[in-house]
Specification:
With about 325 residues, the chain is α/β, with parallel strands linked by helices. It has a seven-stranded mixed β-sheet, sandwiched between helices. Helix 2 links the parallel strand 4 and strand 5. It is globular and about 75 Å long. The termini are far apart.
């Protein structure tokens, strides 16, 4: 018996960020697969899909937002349910990769949590990962399978270019390690000057930077401070103050992932930054919205990546061969 099977795209979403998932499926012109998901009295999570997923090309979207461990666990259970229900291929879509900051050992007796995350999803049954702006590029090598590393760069640079393109700009990296990303920003903005912040981070206290100084000339320029995430906001706000102290005409903070743990909102509101530009890889509740904050949608990028993977196209072509 011979039978030619058709590819069947099915998109699933956890409960962490339904708004983003709905935007993605609207652009793909399909619907989310209905599912039941709830907690037992002791906090254990239950997941079940309400229709057959046998033989499908499954894309499971979940943003690892707070409470992060709960949503990661739900994501893993969703993948396991798909594997046991005979999905043909399972692609995990994590706009924000949880635990990505712990990608190496700074000191002895520490875990490499980003590697453990990759192992967990592989064990659960994931065949492929799609993620946006990893904290470190080498995390792609932690997962034993294809990883599509999307970049919010085109979306954010287009916005900055349209709004501030007529002014004298400079791109500033918050540390020496992100110079490559800053170079791409500079190229997209027409070759504007580069600078970076020299900082000393305390290894014994989380989220604390000891000293800042600007390496490069930012005098009289609008500085675009780029980073992958804003957590408590301490690092990026100190970097903004350093730019202003060095003679910058103004600072725009651009970061892909708005984690915004307390006291980030207060710090950003009271900072010298003119505008804070982020994407919606993570949900931003109403109590964390403020006037200076601009949120750009990452949904078109994720939807196009899903379409390229499903149709066996090229994700790299989305970024001029740089992905």
């Amino acid at each position: 018996m011979k039978k030619t099977t058709e590819k069947n795209l099915m998109v699933f979403s956890g409960r962490a960020h339904p708004t983003l998932a709905n935007e993605v499926v609207e652009l793909l012109d399909c619907g989310l697969v209905p599912q039941s998901a709830y907690e037992f009295a002791n906090g254990e999570i239950y997941v079940r899909y309400e229709e057959s997923v046998r033989g499908c090309d499954a894309f499971v979207i979940q943003s690892h937002t707070s409470p992060i461990n709960e949503w990661i666990m739900e994501h893993l259970l969703m993948v396991d349910a798909l594997k046991r229900a005979s999905a043909k291929r399972i692609t995990v879509v994590m706009p924000f990769y949880g635990y990505a900051r712990q990608d190496k050992k700074h000191r002895g007796r520490e875990p490499i949590s980003a590697r453990l995350m990759a192992d967990l999803f592989k064990t659960a049954g994931a065949d492929r990962l799609i993620t946006v702006d990893l904290h470190a590029d080498q995390i792609q090598g932690f997962f034993d399978g294809p990883v599509d590393h999307l970049m919010a760069l085109p979306i954010m640079t287009d916005y900055v270019k349209e709004k501030y393109g007529d002014q004298r700009l400079a791109v500033v990296s918050p540390d020496a390690g992100r110079i490559k990303v800053a170079e791409r920003w500079s190229a997209r903005l027409g070759g504007v000057p580069l600078a970076f912040i020299h900082k000393t981070r305390r290894t014994d206290v989380a989220n604390e930077v000891v000293a800042n100084r600007v390496v490069g000339d930012v005098t009289g320029r609008i500085c675009i401070l780029t980073d992958d995430m804003i957590d408590t906001g301490g690092t990026i706000v100190k970097a903004a103050e350093a730019c202003v102290a060095d003679g910058a005409a103004g600072v725009i903070i651009a970061a892909t992932h708005p984690i915004l743990s307390d006291p980030a909102v207060d710090r950003l509101k009271n900072s010298s930054a003119i505008e804070i530009v982020v994407t919606n890889t993570l949900p931003i509740p109403d109590d964390k919205q403020f006037d200076k904050l601009t949120t750009l949608s990452i949904a078109p990028l994720i939807a196009r990546a899903i379409r390229e993977v499903f149709e066996d196209g090229s994700v790299t072509s989305m970024f001029d061969g740089h992905a």
